[in-house]
């Protein structure tokens, strides 16, 4: 299931990031490569009236070496491309500027709902000017104040009223949804082409959704259906902003959200980069199953140790992904790609597997016998019972005498025992301690 996406567009200094921060709050900031610089927070998740959505601040996607109008036009295009609802922000104090008019023209041509926000309406006199803005032809304007937090409720009411139920694209549960994530030029698009080229049958009639134009469905020889999420974002369309890191991160984050399995692609020629670990760890945090693909394996010089060294390096850099298989592949030669759908399917199945409580508790009892629970401050941890409460990812509640006593290391030990006894390859496991009352 995917959440609707709302994008904020407007000239610089209009208050976009102020509003973004007000709406998303401090709770969930995802893109933050430079703490303290609000600009780097361009994608967040929040909810209004119980409706969850993702919010994008397009002002954060900047283009170096381009004039302001090109940059703003790109931001408006990104909003049209990515968002279900667009919030167009202007400054109520300055009236309509020519740049505002240009943005309005671009938005006007899209058929996305646009909500017009008049920011910096800090007091009643300023709010009085709202009628001028009807001339933009975008319907009722909503006066707001980012600094004072005024008018945001009405604005958000309007925004969520445009969410359509069928904009939440939901593929049938039997369809495996996966995406390819990685920096520009790691070979995502080549990999998609190669994967699709290997499949004998490609279908286009998987239950239609409003988003399927950007996704690619296919079916393997055994009839298993797959959807490659956001193939449109992977293929090049020639836009100027396409190869910027921020845009590719943004695209990756929303693709991750809609996927069951995420293929994290690393370029063998370049090795691991900082951005890789940020995006990959987001996939992990979201509980997605993960396969690490080291692409362009054909292009590097190898001796008998190269693969092992590379693997070790990845394991060290991505400790939290120890459950993820690593595949050394080449989109150029097709090396190890033939079996990829099979692996994705296997991982999806482990992700969705449900373990019976009786079997689970036999494993738990053996684990407790093998490694007795620790004593912390003279208090001994007691583990009573474990039960699986969810799949995708597998989630277990473990009942204990005191949740404070279940430290990370013992939790880790329990996780390892689960992995030893059941096949959870490629998938994160969640263990939630509960006090037994
Ligand atoms: P952005 O470039 O569109 O993201 O704009 P910012 O959020 O960075 O805000 C630009 C400036 O406008 C900052 O100095 C903010 O403090 C200020 N600002 C934002 N919202 C308001 C508002 O509602 N009223 C007033 N007076 N200033 C605001
Ligand atoms: P994307 O930006 O991640 O979608 O990357 P592309 O698929 O556009 O690939 C970027 C460049 O790397 C292109 O010139 C590809 O031909 C090249 N490339 C992709 N995969 C491989 C590979 O496995 N081996 C080699 N040698 N080149 C590759």
Automatic annotation (TrEMBL):
Pfam families: KH_dom-like, MMR_HSR1. Coiled coil: none annotated. SUPFAM superfamilies: P-loop containing nucleoside triphosphate hydrolases. Keywords: GTP-binding, Nucleotide-binding, Repeat, Ribosome biogenesis. GTP 2 binds at residues 182-189, 230-234, 295-298. Signal peptide: none annotated. It comes from the Bacteria. Residues 4-167, 176-352 form the EngA-type G domain. Gene3D superfamilies: 3.30.300.20, P-loop containing nucleotide triphosphate hydrolases. GTPase that plays an essential role in the late steps of ribosome biogenesis. Belongs to the TRAFAC class TrmE-Era-EngA-EngB-Septin-like GTPase superfamily. EngA (Der) GTPase family. This is GTPase Der. It comes from Atopostipes suicloacalis DSM 15692. The gene is der.
